[in-house]
């Protein structure tokens, strides 16, 4: 029934498939440009060369002097310049004053003390029956040109009301008349202390034997009295700086033991100087080693205060020398009436003079009736140095001053002599005799190389110091170091 | 030549003149009355100082120029007269 059937295959052409047509084609790009370039790097190489030093060059040129010079130009230059230079040379010869320093100080080793002026006021000498003829105190003005001398007597035993004088000389005046002072003030009692104000030279403070403190205004020729006097003679005066610029501050010390702080109003005319504060040194406030018994007041004979930046002392610290020989550091600040802050070892006998060193803030020098000058460190009770003044015991040492320019030098008056001491060793540098009457007071000039000494016959001598005693530039460093070395002894002890 | 020498002698004859040096614009001494080493020292130092002084004056005012320079010391005075090409240095001790 069923059997396999194979049909025929059919073929038909595609409607869409066609044969691809191919054709060969060529194209050409532009040529690729190439360049060839050579390059070379540098190779360093070391090489040495040698020049002459400038001085050698100059020396060699000097040797071949005439080679490269245009003589004409040179002579033209010289003729132009010669006139100017010659004129200047001649001017230099004629005006010598610029070089007079070197002329004056040419002799650098001049250690002399030469008397320049002798001031002897006739008015005082010729007063009849006047016992107040000694020049008891001197003060220089801040500029060093004027000097004020207080006349009085150191021999007062009882209360005296003899009139006395304060005389002022200006040493720069060409017609300086040594016998007649420029200004004179008559006061009712012997003058024991004078003090020029360091920056305002019209104010001179005067302290009298009667205890009165007054301020003489030489510009207005006016006297301002203190409100109430001391009970005993005023022995020392010191101008201080007042915090308020309208006022002046003065501190006075007296043998009644009081330190009175005064204030003066600068602009207003006032007849009275007001008391700011009074402090009293009483023996009960001193330790037993001061050797004073009982409850008496300790009389003050001299005082000084350190100066730091301003020309006036401004700190309230004052170091005081007393009648019994005590040396006490006091403070003017605070309200309590006891000013004592520190007590140093005593001298034997009244302390006549005390001065703080300008070059060290903790050193001061004192001199007393026991013929000793002592250097104390402000923080230590026993003195660092003691200088025994030679000469007979009757030679009173009334004053000691530091040198204003040399840190280690001090001037001491001993009777009729002035001795110059180097305090570091201590050694005597020089002693100068000044003549008969004993010296009662001495002050160094704050800005010039001179010293004023007042004698017991009323004569004041102005002495010029030799340049070796004054000129300090070469030694100031060593001497300041030497002063510091003395103070180091306090630490080592 | 002799004129130059004469002028130098005249300047040197003034009272107190210790020495005179003529220096050229490079700082090299041309004529001198002092010894070599002193001359060389003075010439170099003063030349530099004069250049400095001149530039100072001109910096402050460009139309100004240095005409004379004086150096006073404790021991003597050094006077310098500058020019475009030369420099004259005279050392004088006036207190003699």
UniProtKB/TrEMBL annotation, chain B:
> InterPro entries in the record, alphabetically?
DYNLRB1/2, Roadblock/LAMTOR2_dom
One of the record's GO cellular component terms? centrosome
Q: Which domain of life is it from?
A: Eukaryota
In this protein, which residues make up the domain named Roadblock/LAMTOR2?
A: 4-92
Which Pfam family, any one, appears in the UniProt record? Answer: Robl_LC7
Location in the cell reads: Cytoplasm, Cytoskeleton
* One GO BP annotation of this record: microtubule-based movement
Give the GO molecular function terms: dynein intermediate chain binding
Q: Which UniProt keywords apply?
A: Cytoplasm, Cytoskeleton, Dynein, Microtubule, Motor protein, Transport
General function of this protein: Acts as one of several non-catalytic accessory components of the cytoplasmic dynein 1 complex that are thought to be involved in linking dynein to cargos and to adapter proteins that regulate dynein function. Cytoplasmic dynein 1 acts as a motor for the intracellular retrograde motility of vesicles and organelles along microtubules.
Q: Which family does it belong to?
A: Belongs to the GAMAD family.
UniProt protein name: Dynein light chain roadblock
User: What is the species of this protein?
Assistant: Ciona intestinalis
